[in-house]
Write a structure and sequence with these properties.
Helix content is 33%, strand content 20%. It is an alpha/beta fold.
């Protein structure tokens, strides 16, 4: 009889794991509490409009392409997508803008238009970060099982590139003198929910990946990725059960043996957790089975920021917008300090708007637009009461949109959904509403992050943004490969 594996959560990491394990011949059951797959990579739909709940940027598709190839499928056939050019429009509150492109010559010309003296540095940035990623990639592709992993040759070779004393912003200041360009190549730290002034310099590879490999839009949104993955996993034999909430991970003799749901106990030879880490470990794993990750230990960790979201169905087109649009506040450093340290709401926030109708006519009715608006804010904190701030901050967000030329938006709204940090926590089960999970400071990376082979119990594995390598779709898919490989090794089925 095949070994039985239960996967908690049908998010991107859980579904990628299900594909790999089902292909390996295991009896795979995915339990998802929602009526649809995807987790934070699921759709919001209404009135003919479709939005991604969470991720909208899809970069570095190579990892997911390799996962599809490993199970005998072609990602581009299963999920059609388009490469965007320009990738996004960056508007600076301090003045000026960039239309960012993965075409090197076009990008050099764009930089020269903004800051001529910095234009030649783009090629140096790309060349040096190409080497950095090549050196560091093996560290992201392998599990980190303890401090002894630091002594492995692959990390020793990377040490000259890590520069732990340097922030991401300081790293980019070594390439570009213009402060706007420093921000243009560091705002990507928000993908990790971190400030570039605190984020480790290693993560300059994020902006490099955008320019080296491009940014893609799956037709139908990023939720099309998880819908396609669920379809393939099911065709490979995995069972995906929706509307089935796991209430407890069962542990006997320090080994995971199954889960409990409203329907009763389900036994398994291994359990994979794709739920939000902070929520899952404190709510699903009873305290008597946790020595390291107690409630107090989890609470003491540093968590990412959260997001205030508007999903707006708009009558008429918004052709003044590109597909992806980012506004960087004039006082960006203050904006980030208010989010991460003061935990207050800023009145001139940076924000991001997706206008997918520019690329994909399936996202809204003909002649209409589906706008996705994201404003980075503090995770849940006593300083902010979202029952009082929800309506007021909606007005702040709409006022900010006018800075991108959307001056008559409110009267054209035909569909609207708001998601606050309180909603992320209470409705989506995200610990503290920290949408990018545990922060990626040096004290919470590699072996200091919760392990892919979770240390609190045998045959218990983690995938997703709360484990190694971290948050963001490409590395979440990498976490699935790592955890699936460890699980197969432990069950004696490694190939």
């Amino acid at each position: 009889m095949s070994n039985r594996v239960i996967i908690i959560g049908a998010g991107p990491g859980g579904l990628a794991t299900a594909m790999l394990l089902a292909k390996a011949g295991l009896d795979v059951t995915v339990l998802e509490k929602e009526p649809r797959v995807g987790g934070r990579t699921s759709p919001i739909e209404g009135g003919g409009y479709r939005f991604d709940l969470g991720p909208t940027f899809f970069l570095y598709p190579q990892i997911l392409e390799e996962i599809f190839a490993a199970v005998g499928r072609d990602l581009r056939r299963e999920v059609p997508m388009k490469k965007l050019d320009p990738q996004y429009r960056l508007v600076f509150g301090a003045g000026g803008e960039l239309l960012c492109s993965s075409d090197v010559e076009r990008m050099v010309a764009e930089i020269a238009r903004l800051a001529p003296q910095d234009a030649p540095q783009f090629r140096r940035f790309m060349a040096e970060n190409r080497v950095k990623l090549e050196k560091f990639a093996p560290c992201l592709q392998s599990p980190w099982l303890g401090w002894t992993s630091l002594l492995q040759p692959r990390l020793l070779g990377v040490l000259p590139f890590l520069k732990p004393w340097k922030s991401l912003h300081a790293e980019l200041a070594g390439y570009f003198r213009d402060p706007r360009l420093q921000l243009a190549f560091t705002f990507q730290s928000k993908y990790l929910g971190m400030s570039p002034f605190q984020c480790p310099s290693l993560f300059s590879i994020l902006s490099f990946l955008e320019y080296e490999h491009g940014i893609f839009h799956p037709i139908g949104g990023c939720n099309a990725l998880t819908r396609g993955m669920a379809r393939v996993a099911a065709e490979l034999g995995a069972s995906i059960r929706l509307n089935e909430t796991v209430t407890e991970i069962l542990v006997e003799n320090r080994r995971a043996v199954g889960v409990r749901t409203a329907a009763g106990e389900l036994r398994a030879d291994a359990v994979v957790v794709n739920a939000d880490f902070g929520h899952a470990v404190t709510k699903l794993l009873p305290p008597q089975h946790r020595r390291k990750w107690t409630d107090d230990a989890v609470a003491g960790k540093r968590f990412s920021c959260s997001t205030f979201m508007l999903y707006l169905g708009i009558e008429g087109r918004c052709d003044q917008l590109q597909h992806h649009n980012i506004y960087v506040a004039a006082d960006y450093r203050r904006n980030l300090d208010e989010i991460e340290n003061q935990h207050i709401l800023t009145e001139d926030p940076s924000f991001y708007v997706e206008n997918p109708g520019r690329t994909d006519e399936t996202m809204a009715p003909a002649g209409h637009s589906a706008l996705y608006v994201l404003v980075p804010v503090s995770h849940q904190h006593p300083n902010i009461d979202w029952t009082r701030e929800r309506a007021r901050y909606r007005q702040v967000a709409l006022r900010q949109l006018a800075k991108l030329g959307l001056t008559d938006l409110e009267k054209r709204i035909r569909f609207e959904r708001i998601v606050t940090p309180a909603d992320w926590e209470g409705k989506v089960a995200v610990y503290r509403g920290a949408t990018f999970n545990l922060a990626h400071n040096l004290g919470q990376m590699l072996h200091l992050r919760p392990g892919n082979r979770f240390e609190e119990a045998g045959r218990l594995y983690l995938v997703g943004g709360g484990t190694h390598p971290g948050s963001g779709l490409p590395v979440i898919f990498e976490s699935a490969r790592i955890s699936a490989r460890l699980l197969l090794e432990d069950l004696g089925q490694a190939t």
